[in-house]
């Protein structure tokens, strides 16, 4: 029984191989020069394999590729535009607009963004949140503290990383479970956008200085 | 896959589906059949015409047929269309359909055959629905269907079962035969697919055709560009964009490979004398050379989808006039070899600007990615209304009579380029020491030209930037501003004014439906 299943799995794998081979040609035909936003990952991997998102919060992301908040749609546009298509990130988007960081985030190449959800912002007492939103300088510090100037894959995520704000964020965890600065959980990680990798987190990060 | 019984094996299992054995057999029959069908079709298409591959044809057709709910998706993908995702989707549907086909074939061979006819029928319809399809193009699908029938019957036969006396469950009559047949079929499918790929790679007809082209020197060459068009600041793009760096935004799943011996350009619709040209006929009219900046409507504020090239081509307006334009027409619909339609206002083509049928780009025949053998170019219009690539036909008509591809998807029918400017250096979030910092970038307002660029630091006053030379209103213009930077975080903004005196609006609108507006900004840190 098991041997039969194993052998059948082998046959399926072989068939899969020939199917993958078919799309290889297409990659070499158009991949290299297609969209400037296309990531230059191994051409044999299927798109879903090279950008596997993970985390309980991913379930809340729309799956219909026609929806601008879906992973498919987000992967095609720069990060601030991608976030603005996602309703769970609307508070963040408001803050980014307020701090005049839309273009800079869209234009930054190869960055990682920790993106707090609306719920994350809702955890901050309203008076404090309003204060931060009203002060562009503070807001900019808080927001740039959420951006690391290199692209972090789940394999390189754990560790201490210098942010654009200047302070360090510390990510602990492994596999599919990560915590940023000790309290902010990654609820949906490794989301691809045209110019940045996004980790959606459940608490706003605060720079130490 | 585990039985739900609590007793340890080998206790009795309940009969009835789904049994692992049945699933494995359905998967084996379905995938073997599909792989052989597609592999043989692929091989046939490589021989006949690479675009006759049914998988690619279905992918292309599904883009074109995308219904209203998918419109938003089409809009999002306008700039960056990730074709591989679409092909992945087609393959996923194929695998599911194949397994269903396998299950049907196991029940009754007749069901399997009907399913296979439907399966290949979709491919055949997609292949034949392409605008350049000929009857020959359906042969690869038919050959694939024939091979698929044989594969299906072989594997179904090898997957015969008998009821086991020991367990009362069906088991394979001959497991070795089943594995050998399924494995052999899979290996065969892989072999024909690989052969098809090898042939397709060895026969890139477009690349071959392009290599055979030698463009005559232009009869009206463009004057050399003065060095003063460039500001010479680090971090600035070159004034003329190299072909390999020129942006590419289109919906082609694979870059069309056009064989010049078959290619024709036709002009029809509301003209007195419809015409068809061969490539040589067009070259014989004499080439003009023009420096033109081209940009894409889907560019975000500050985005990368803009470039400038030295194009050679045939002036378009005289061709239309010679054909005898009938009165009352206002749209020229261009069609590419893969079926893309683009609608251009006739007025824009005829008003004296350098509307071209371009055959050369920066001194070489048009690259395949950029529309070999010929693309349209209309300065002052976004590409989606004026720059059809792989052009094969032009039809004079009206806007009322026909909605081209993007207009069907909600984009504006007429889309003149909006005045815009971009900071290229410093880059976002750059860190620079205090003191003089060169801010530099580009500004563009094709047809009108740029007359001023201003820079604002934080909420300070707008300051005049220095403009590099701008030899033509159809070209972007570089600019610089020397900023005495003080420590801290700063937001830099830019805005341009065109020759009509109009300054860019601060109001942010997204690219849909007729181009983004707003002042580009960059945040930098001075230490």
TrEMBL record, chain A:
<dbReference type="GO" id="GO:0007155">
    <property type="term" value="P:cell adhesion"/>
</dbReference>
<feature type="region of interest" description="Disordered">
    <location>
        <begin position="25"/>
        <end position="47"/>
    </location>
</feature>
<dbReference type="GO" id="GO:0030198">
    <property type="term" value="P:extracellular matrix organization"/>
</dbReference>
<protein>
    <submittedName>
        <fullName>Fasciclin domain-containing protein</fullName>
    </submittedName>
</protein>
<dbReference type="InterPro" id="IPR036378">
    <property type="entry name" value="FAS1_dom_sf"/>
</dbReference>
<feature type="domain" description="FAS1">
    <location>
        <begin position="76"/>
        <end position="205"/>
    </location>
</feature>
<dbReference type="GO" id="GO:0005615">
    <property type="term" value="C:extracellular space"/>
</dbReference>
<dbReference type="InterPro" id="IPR000782">
    <property type="entry name" value="FAS1_domain"/>
</dbReference>
<dbReference type="GO" id="GO:0031012">
    <property type="term" value="C:extracellular matrix"/>
</dbReference>
<dbReference type="Pfam" id="PF02469">
    <property type="entry name" value="Fasciclin"/>
</dbReference>
<feature type="signal peptide">
    <location>
        <begin position="1"/>
        <end position="25"/>
    </location>
</feature>
<keyword id="KW-0732">Signal</keyword>
<dbReference type="InterPro" id="IPR050904">
    <property type="entry name" value="Adhesion/Biosynth-related"/>
</dbReference>
<dbReference type="GO" id="GO:0050839">
    <property type="term" value="F:cell adhesion molecule binding"/>
</dbReference>
<feature type="compositionally biased region" description="Low complexity">
    <location>
        <begin position="28"/>
        <end position="47"/>
    </location>
</feature>
From TrEMBL, chain B:
<dbReference type="GO" id="GO:0006790">
    <property type="term" value="P:sulfur compound metabolic process"/>
</dbReference>
<feature type="transmembrane region" description="Helical">
    <location>
        <begin position="84"/>
        <end position="106"/>
    </location>
</feature>
<dbReference type="GO" id="GO:0020037">
    <property type="term" value="F:heme binding"/>
</dbReference>
<dbReference type="InterPro" id="IPR014756">
    <property type="entry name" value="Ig_E-set"/>
</dbReference>
<dbReference type="InterPro" id="IPR036374">
    <property type="entry name" value="OxRdtase_Mopterin-bd_sf"/>
</dbReference>
<feature type="region of interest" description="Disordered">
    <location>
        <begin position="1"/>
        <end position="20"/>
    </location>
</feature>
<keyword id="KW-1133">Transmembrane helix</keyword>
<feature type="transmembrane region" description="Helical">
    <location>
        <begin position="178"/>
        <end position="200"/>
    </location>
</feature>
<keyword id="KW-0812">Transmembrane</keyword>
<dbReference type="Pfam" id="PF00174">
    <property type="entry name" value="Oxidored_molyb"/>
</dbReference>
<feature type="transmembrane region" description="Helical">
    <location>
        <begin position="138"/>
        <end position="157"/>
    </location>
</feature>
<protein>
    <submittedName>
        <fullName>Molybdopterin-binding oxidoreductase</fullName>
    </submittedName>
</protein>
<feature type="transmembrane region" description="Helical">
    <location>
        <begin position="113"/>
        <end position="132"/>
    </location>
</feature>
<dbReference type="InterPro" id="IPR008335">
    <property type="entry name" value="Mopterin_OxRdtase_euk"/>
</dbReference>
<dbReference type="GO" id="GO:0008482">
    <property type="term" value="F:sulfite oxidase activity"/>
</dbReference>
<feature type="compositionally biased region" description="Basic and acidic residues">
    <location>
        <begin position="1"/>
        <end position="10"/>
    </location>
</feature>
<keyword id="KW-0472">Membrane</keyword>
<feature type="domain" description="Oxidoreductase molybdopterin-binding">
    <location>
        <begin position="254"/>
        <end position="400"/>
    </location>
</feature>
<feature type="transmembrane region" description="Helical">
    <location>
        <begin position="23"/>
        <end position="48"/>
    </location>
</feature>
<dbReference type="GO" id="GO:0043546">
    <property type="term" value="F:molybdopterin cofactor binding"/>
</dbReference>
<dbReference type="InterPro" id="IPR000572">
    <property type="entry name" value="OxRdtase_Mopterin-bd_dom"/>
</dbReference>
């Amino acid at each position: 029984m098991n041997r039969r299943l194993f052998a059948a799995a082998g046959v399926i794998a072989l068939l899969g191989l020939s199917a993958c081979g078919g799309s290889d040609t297409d990659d070499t035909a158009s991949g290299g020069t297609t969209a400037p936003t296309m990531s230059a990952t191994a051409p044999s991997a299927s798109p879903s394999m090279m950008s596997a998102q993970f985390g309980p919060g991913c379930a809340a992301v729309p799956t219909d590729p026609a929806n601008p908040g879906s992973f498919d749609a987000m992967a095609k546009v720069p990060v601030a535009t991608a976030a603005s298509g996602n309703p769970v990130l609307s508070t963040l988007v408001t803050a980014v607009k307020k701090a005049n960081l839309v273009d800079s985030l869209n234009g930054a190449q190869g960055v990682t963004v920790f993106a707090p959800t609306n719920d994350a912002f809702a955890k901050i007492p309203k008076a404090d949140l309003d204060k931060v939103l009203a002060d562009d300088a503070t807001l900019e510090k808080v927001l740039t503290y959420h951006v690391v100037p290199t692209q972090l894959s789940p394999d390189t995520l754990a560790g201490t990383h210098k942010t654009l704000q200047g302070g360090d964020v510390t990510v602990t965890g492994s596999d599919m479970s990560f915590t940023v600065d000790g309290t902010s959980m990654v609820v949906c990680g490794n989301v691809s956008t045209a110019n940045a990798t996004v980790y959606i987190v459940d608490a706003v990060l605060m720079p130490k200085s | 896959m585990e039985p739900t019984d609590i007793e340890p094996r080998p206790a009795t299992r309940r009969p009835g589906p789904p049994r692992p054995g049945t699933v494995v057999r359905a998967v084996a029959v379905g995938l073997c059949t599909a792989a052989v069908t597609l592999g043989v079709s692929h091989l046939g298409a490589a021989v006949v015409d690479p675009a006759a591959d049914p998988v690619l044809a279905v992918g292309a057709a599904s883009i074109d047929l995308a219904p209203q709910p998918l419109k938003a998706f089409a809009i999002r993908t306008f700039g960056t269309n990730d074709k591989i995702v679409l092909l992945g989707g087609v393959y996923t549907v194929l695998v599911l359909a194949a397994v269903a086909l396998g299950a049907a074939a196991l029940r009754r061979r007749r069901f399997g055959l009907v399913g296979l006819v439907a399966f290949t029928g979709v491919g055949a319809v997609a292949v034949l629905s392409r605008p350049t399809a000929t009857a020959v193009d359906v042969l690869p699908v038919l050959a694939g269907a024939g091979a698929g029938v044989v594969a299906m019957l072989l594997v179904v036969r090898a997957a015969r079962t008998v009821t086991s006396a020991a367990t009362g469950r069906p088991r394979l009559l001959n497991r070795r035969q089943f594995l050998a047949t399924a494995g052999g079929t899979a290996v065969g499918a892989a072999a024909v697919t690989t052969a098809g790929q090898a042939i397709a790679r060895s026969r890139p007809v477009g690349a071959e055709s392009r290599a055979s082209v030698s463009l005559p020197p232009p009869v009206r060459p463009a004057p050399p560009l003065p060095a003063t068009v460039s500001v010479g600041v680090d971090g600035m793009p070159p004034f003329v964009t190299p072909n390999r760096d020129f942006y590419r935004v289109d919906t082609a799943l694979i870059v069309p490979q056009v064989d010049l011996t078959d290619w024709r350009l036709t002009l029809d619709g509301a003209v007195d004398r419809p015409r068809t040209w061969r490539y040589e006929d067009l070259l014989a009219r004499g080439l003009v050379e023009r420096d033109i900046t081209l940009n894409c409507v889907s560019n975000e504020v500050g985005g990368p989808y803009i470039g400038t090239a030295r194009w050679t081509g045939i002036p378009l307006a005289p061709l239309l006039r010679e054909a005898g334009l009938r009165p009352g027409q206002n749209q020229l619909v261009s069609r590419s070899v893969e079926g893309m339609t683009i609608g251009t206002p006739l007025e824009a083509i005829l008003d004296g600007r350098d509307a071209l049928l371009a055959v050369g780009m920066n001194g070489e025949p048009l690259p395949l990615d950029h529309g070999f053998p010929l693309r349209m170019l209309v300065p002052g219009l976004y590409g989606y209304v004026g720059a059809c690539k792989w052009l094969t036909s032009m039809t004079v008509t009206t806007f009322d009579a026909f909605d081209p591809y993007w207009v069907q998807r909600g984009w504006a029918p007429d889309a003149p380029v909006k005045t815009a400017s971009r900071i290229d250096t410093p880059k976002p979030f750059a860190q620079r020491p205090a003191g003089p910092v060169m801010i530099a970038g580009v500004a563009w307002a094709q047809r009108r030209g740029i007359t001023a660029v201003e820079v604002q630091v934080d909420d300070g006053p707008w300051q005049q930037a220095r403009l590099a030379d701008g030899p033509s209103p159809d070209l972007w213009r570089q600019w610089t501003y020397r900023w005495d930077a003080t420590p801290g975080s700063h937001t830099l903004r830019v805005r341009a004014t065109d020759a009509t005196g109009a300054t860019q609006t601060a109001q942010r609108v997204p690219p849909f439906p007729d181009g983004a507006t707003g002042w580009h900004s960059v945040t930098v840190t001075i230490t």
